[in-house]
Specification:
Helix content of chain B: over 70%
Largest sheet of chain B: none
Number of domains of chain A: 2
CATH architecture of the largest domain in chain A: 3-Layer(aba) Sandwich
Strand content of chain B: under 5%
Structural class of chain B: mainly alpha
Oligomer: heterodimer
Radius of gyration of chain B: 18 Å
CATH superfamily of the largest domain in chain A: Rhodanese-like domain
Helix content of chain A: 25-40%
Distance between the termini of chain B: 28 Å
Order of helices and strands of chain A: HHHHEHEEHEHEHEE
Largest interface: A-B, 37 and 44 residues
Number of helices of chain B: 8
Chain lengths: ~200, ~170
């Protein structure tokens, strides 16, 4: 009986913590929304293709925006590249040309639509939460994922890569040069008409 | 008389004598509290990251995950502080026990579903992946919480110190 009473007391403690949590989040400068935000890019351009039932399927259906053969070539990246977590420009070009990788543009939808690396899908870091299901359905956890954003000064790709690792993706690397370096080098690009958006 | 007979009964079993020793319970309670405060600190400071780790489990509707992450991180923090200072210790240990039951359930579901995700246990990043070892660790922690609930005497706890001062004044 004392045990049950203590458990009820424990629930009260958790309830009190809830009150503190709500009060603290209401007054803090970097408060988080009570309900995760649904960015405009998601509602405007929802992903409409039917989801695959098997997340380990290496080749997603056409239109999914994920390159065919994704996840089937873990040897594409060397241990050194995985350890450093980065690939330089020329290596990035090799990987894009070879295919079998997922290139993710972590910038906002507007920037992505203006221009992005050929074959890249758009998963803005800010809208990651709403793309969880899409990502886990379309991109197998053993896929090789390369994230990029605008250039060396942005950190959205880094944060996105970190969170993809949280989700269980094993081979996630950054292309730090980003859109600036890639487009200046004159390597293959696409605009919103030919690219696909994840979400 | 009743207290004496209980003490005699407990002392007759060496293991029970150790587990129920007030110093042992004090150490256990402070360690458990410190562990929870440590694990909660980063989550409280960066709730968004913890919310993302929560979403990775895929057990809750996305719309609830931010609120859940906020409440959970502060539950760990509050229960941990209460354990360290000995405030309503049994209730705090019960809260810790309930949280651990929930964590263990969540981790078990990831194993069953074949998910390899970061557990989000002690910090928002670079933590351990979910697996059987985490379940084993949580079982030990749950046992510790139960011992505190069962044998807590208020020794060097704020609750007891305050109530004694109130009685003496």
């Amino acid at each position: 009986m004392k045990f049950v009473q203590d458990l009820m007391g424990g629930i009260l403690v958790i309830f009190a913590a809830g009150v503190i949590a709500i009060a603290q989040n209401a007054v803090r400068d970097d408060k988080i929304p009570w309900i995760p935000k649904n960015p405009a890019s998601v509602s405007e351009k929802p992903y409409t293709s039917p989801p695959t039932s098997d997340s380990s399927t290496p080749a997603p259906p056409a239109g999914a925006g994920v390159p065919a053969g994704t996840g089937s070539s873990p040897a594409l990246l060397s241990d050194g590249e995985l350890a450093s977590g980065q690939v330089p420009l020329e290596r990035m070009r090799e990987l894009v040309e070879a295919g079998g990788i997922v290139v993710i543009d972590a910038r906002a939808a507007g920037e992505y639509e203006t221009g992005h690396i050929a074959g890249a899908i758009n998963v803005p870091y800010e809208g990651l939460a709403e793309r969880y299901d899409w990502l886990s359905q379309k991109i197998p956890l053993d896929a090789i994922v390369v994230c990029y954003c605008q250039g060396v000064t942005c950190d959205d790709s880094e944060k996105l890569a970190q969170e993809l690792k949280f989700m269980g993706y094993k081979s996630v690397v950054l292309y730090k040069g980003g859109w600036d370096e890639w487009s200046q080098a004159g390597y293959p690009v696409e605009s919103s008409n030919s690219g696909k958006q994840g979400g | 008389m009743g207290t004496n007979s209980t003490t005699t009964l407990q002392s007759s079993n060496p293991l029970t004598a150790i587990l129920s020793h007030r110093v042992f319970v004090l150490v256990l309670r402070v360690l458990l509290g410190a562990l929870f405060v440590y694990s909660a600190a980063e989550k409280v400071l960066e709730p968004e990251k913890f919310a993302i780790a929560t979403r990775a489990y895929g057990l809750l509707p996305v719309s609830l995950t931010n609120l859940f992450a906020l409440v959970l991180s502060w539950s760990e923090m509050l229960a941990g502080i209460m354990l360290i200072f000995g405030v309503q210790t049994r209730k705090a240990a019960a809260a810790v026990f309930l949280l651990l039951v929930m964590f263990t359930f969540a981790i078990a579901t990831t194993i069953i579903r074949g998910l390899a995700i970061d557990c989000g246990c002690f910090s928002n990043e670079g933590g351990a992946q979910t697996g059987y070892l985490l379940i084993l660790r949580n079982l030990f922690l749950m046992a510790a919480a139960l011992i505190v609930m069962r044998f807590e005497t208020g020794f060097l706890g704020l609750s007891r110190i305050v109530s004694r001062r109130a009685e003496s004044s």
